[in-house]
Amino acid sequence: EPEAAGVPEENNDTIIFVPSAGPPSPPEQVQYLLIGAGTASVSAMRAILKADPNAEILMVGAEPHGPYMRPPLSKELWFNEDKTESSQLIFNDWSGNKRSLFYPDKLGDVTELAPGSPALLKGTKVVKLDPTNQKVTLSTGEVIKYGKCLLAPGGEPKTLPSLEPSDKNPCLSTKVHLFRNISQYQQLSSELNENTKVLVIGGGFVGSELAYAMTRTGAAVYQSFPEGGNMGRVLPKYLSNWTTQQLETAGVHVRPETKVVSTECRDNGVLVQLNTGEELTVDHILVAVGLKPSTELGDTAGLEVHGEMGGYVVNAELEARSNLFVAGDAACFYDPVLGRRRVEHHDHAVVSGKLAGQNMAGAAQPYHHQSMFWSDLGPNVGYEAIGLVDSSLPTVGIWAHKDTSESEIRTDPGSNEKYEQGIVFYMDKNKVVGVLTWNIFGKIPIARQVIAAGEEHQDFGLLAKQFDIYTK
Ligand code: FAD
Ligand code: NAD
Ligand code: NAD
Q1: How far apart are CA 119 and CA 108, in angstroms?
Q2: Residue 112: other Cβ atoms inside 10 A
Q3: How far is ligand 1, taken at its centre, from the CA of residue 71, in Å?
Q4: Distances, alpha carbon 313 to alpha carbons 69, 146, 339, in Å
């Protein structure tokens, strides 16, 4: 019976305490605690329940929603012609089915927590983690002891200090947008229409996908980034340049090799100056300059954070300390095939969350299943990739000639070619460490085998045959 928090009510000779209004208290201890209500946590929850259907699982998430997937926030939700559906976070998936952004898993509130019935404490942050005594402190002050804990906090978008609002430029507080979650999607999509101009800063995944997606609102979209072309850190130079051409054709005004040097609030919008001298007056600025993995709990928990890659350092079993596992964007893990890595993609959150969940339930298995990722940038650019895809590695490209049905091996193709369908191998010495398939889908399992085999390759024609690049 809660005493101090209650209001006494007289009823003959017994006194009943009626709890004051407020969220129900979490339990003092729980078998499995999942920190973060994102994709990695959901995947871990499913794996734990599979191994132990009577597991007692509590998920704690800072956002005010149940767990959801992020990929459609920068793609499908913008493409849905039915705006009522998009406002309900419903999208048409690649096979034409209507889907909700939210995961369908059943998660009750803490009063419903029971063996086999997981619960979610939403709108609540874990503010302290004590791995030695296996307990956490919540933003509400409550303390929970755990048997096993998953740390899956994802990350926060980076900002640019020069875009912080100031006394001189107060408008930046409403004109500058970051993009990671549902409320940021709702805010940005409600602001854009054919009378607005928006500048995207950043040429990576979020910047490039959203630049294309936002053209669907009728807004004039500009994009500035330091690389020579879109996705320049992932795609080889020629393919990055081709992608920029495709985005230009789709209506994005791309400004490669540029930086924003100043911003100033004006009556008619924000005046932005680029280092090339070009001035743009825009209504909104989207900053998409990378992710900062959330590792602040590590400060007091004494957990190791990787100096270069960021993220909590974990072993190949995804364990940071006894009974404490990390998965998803915030895990800097040891991949026995490709070495120490950190991966910021949906499928990695699924794969690593699953492995962490299995290991929390006692499997003791190392990371072995390489995750993949995909991106879509308009009608002519859709790609999937696996392994180390970093444009600083040497690459070998195999490109289809649709007219002759022959493929050609090109390590550095000219800039006037068309890149409709092909495969790019990312090499470390003679070994394939990454594979990217361009407008060809469903070949990732073959690529996964090629990387896992770890063999030396010289005959790329032979290697490419396995992929049959004429099949869509
Ligand atoms: P998250 O999904 O970020 O979930 C972590 C959750 O933990 C958050 O809700 C956070 O609020 C919560 N949290 C953090 N700290 C605490 C705390 N202390 N206490 C409680 N809760 C906490 N990847 C692809 O492969 N393909 C795509 O097409 C793709 N599209 C994307 C589009 C967008 C717009 C974005 C932002 C990302 C996209 N990604 C894509 C990346 C992918 O969504 C992420 O890699 C994935 O969400 C990572 O999952 P996660 O569970 O590690 O973290
Ligand atoms: P899911 O159940 O939607 O997909 C399962 C499998 O279907 C994927 O692993 C992939 O092999 C295939 N697939 C899904 N979308 C595809 C696409 N657009 N083109 C080709 N193959 C595709 O998986 P999920 O994890 O629930 O996905 C979440 C979101 O990510 C959805 O919006 C989904 O459409 C998208 N997704 C896109 C791709 C892609 O574009 N290649 C791949 C996987 C997932
Ligand atoms: P990113 O790392 O993909 O790209 C960052 C971009 O910002 C680069 O172009 C970089 O040059 C630029 N940049 C960095 N500092 C800058 C500066 N000072 N000024 C101007 N530009 C600067 O990061 P993102 O696009 O912000 O994406 C965030 C996260 O979301 C990533 O983890 C990404 O993997 C994930 N995501 C993945 C997908 C997908 O897999 N399809 C889609 C969306 C988001």
Answers
A1: 4
A2: 13
A3: 9
A4: 24, 21, 12
